[in-house]
Amino acid sequence: MRTALVIGTGLIGTSAALALAGRGVRVHLVDHDPAQARTAAARGAGTDQAPEGRVDLAVVAVPPAHVADTLAEAIRGGIARAYLDVASVKGGPRRELEAMGCDLTGYLGTHPMAGRERSGPMAATADLFEGRPWVLTPTRETDTEVLNLALELVALCRAVPVVMDADAHDRAVALVSHTPQLVSSLVAARLQDADETAVRLCGQGIRDVTRIAASDPRMWIDILSANPGPVADVLAGIAADLDETVTALRALESSDEEQRLGGAAGIEDVLRRGNTGRSRVPGKHGAAPAAYETVTVLIGDQPGELARIFADAGRAGVNIEDVRIEHATGQQAGLIQLMVEPTAVTGLTAALRDRGWAVRQ
């Protein structure tokens, strides 16, 4: 791949352009808002000048509602050897293109499983896709050259290719991406009119659950509008679980011992199913989640403290497998949770205490 055209210079399009440009591909940028394309170009993502001839690959990175029309125009214009999109839904756009009578041998639907709460070219980064799954949805009609160019794009972005059927992809992202966004927003919405005293009690749990609720509503309306059925199906299952959970909680208020036992059993069932589901979420390097132990340390909110504690762990010969920080309300300090192999806990704890860290049991 020597040349590429990125149509749509938001977070995903500009990030892909930055990755390609950084690896020697001449990238041309176009957007319905020329100022946004100029911003992406100024960041080193390519040039906002039109290509002189046909490019090797056209990457359509526009909202799902506009994918089919944008692709159809590009395909009919013959602007590239191959065409792909990066929308978060795959079945709908392809069916729209088929209905338009487009030749789809040169098209491949893709979806990089990466993103941020922020949007636009200023939020883009060349390493956004590194190590992340990038779904490819080829069909029998997909030309081999197109698939090869798509695989080259994924490799240049240092992502991991995953081949799926388009409709299976849409059902999957409804479960693991689209529904979590709505559930996070629903929980965060409870805080809107909550008493300030309650809000001040927010800890790491509520922060974890509501993190993605900070996402751009306009972007998510576009995404959900393109995949409403599968998302509604998942939410219907959650709604049924919620109804049963509410019934179980009401039973715990009962004066009848049998009802209370039944309520406790209902709560235990949903919690245990949650344990089982959580255990299936891939852990480090895509493997099954490991049973790490946590070493909790009080850390000050000053420059260099994180680097210092990681360096001290390194000197102790301990690899930090994961890390979380819980900030203390109204204080210039917090608790850092270092996840390590169980066999490393004793040695790390002793080493950190020797170096003056306040390790919490």
UniProtKB/TrEMBL annotation:
<dbReference type="Pfam" id="PF20463">
    <property type="entry name" value="PDH_C"/>
</dbReference>
<dbReference type="InterPro" id="IPR008927">
    <property type="entry name" value="6-PGluconate_DH-like_C_sf"/>
</dbReference>
<dbReference type="InterPro" id="IPR046826">
    <property type="entry name" value="PDH_N"/>
</dbReference>
<keyword id="KW-0827">Tyrosine biosynthesis</keyword>
<feature type="domain" description="ACT">
    <location>
        <begin position="294"/>
        <end position="361"/>
    </location>
</feature>
<feature type="domain" description="Prephenate/arogenate dehydrogenase">
    <location>
        <begin position="2"/>
        <end position="283"/>
    </location>
</feature>
<dbReference type="InterPro" id="IPR003099">
    <property type="entry name" value="Prephen_DH"/>
</dbReference>
<keyword id="KW-0560">Oxidoreductase</keyword>
<dbReference type="InterPro" id="IPR036291">
    <property type="entry name" value="NAD(P)-bd_dom_sf"/>
</dbReference>
<comment type="pathway">
    <text>Amino-acid biosynthesis; L-tyrosine biosynthesis; (4-hydroxyphenyl)pyruvate from prephenate (NAD(+) route): step 1/1.</text>
</comment>
<dbReference type="InterPro" id="IPR045865">
    <property type="entry name" value="ACT-like_dom_sf"/>
</dbReference>
<keyword id="KW-0520">NAD</keyword>
<keyword id="KW-0057">Aromatic amino acid biosynthesis</keyword>
<comment type="similarity">
    <text>Belongs to the prephenate/arogenate dehydrogenase family.</text>
</comment>
<dbReference type="GO" id="GO:0008977">
    <property type="term" value="F:prephenate dehydrogenase (NAD+) activity"/>
</dbReference>
<dbReference type="GO" id="GO:0070403">
    <property type="term" value="F:NAD+ binding"/>
</dbReference>
<keyword id="KW-0028">Amino-acid biosynthesis</keyword>
<dbReference type="Pfam" id="PF02153">
    <property type="entry name" value="PDH_N"/>
</dbReference>
<dbReference type="InterPro" id="IPR046825">
    <property type="entry name" value="PDH_C"/>
</dbReference>
<dbReference type="GO" id="GO:0004665">
    <property type="term" value="F:prephenate dehydrogenase (NADP+) activity"/>
</dbReference>
<dbReference type="InterPro" id="IPR050812">
    <property type="entry name" value="Preph/Arog_dehydrog"/>
</dbReference>
<protein>
    <recommendedName>
        <fullName>Prephenate dehydrogenase</fullName>
        <ecNumber>1.3.1.12</ecNumber>
    </recommendedName>
</protein>
<dbReference type="GO" id="GO:0006571">
    <property type="term" value="P:tyrosine biosynthetic process"/>
</dbReference>
<dbReference type="InterPro" id="IPR002912">
    <property type="entry name" value="ACT_dom"/>
</dbReference>
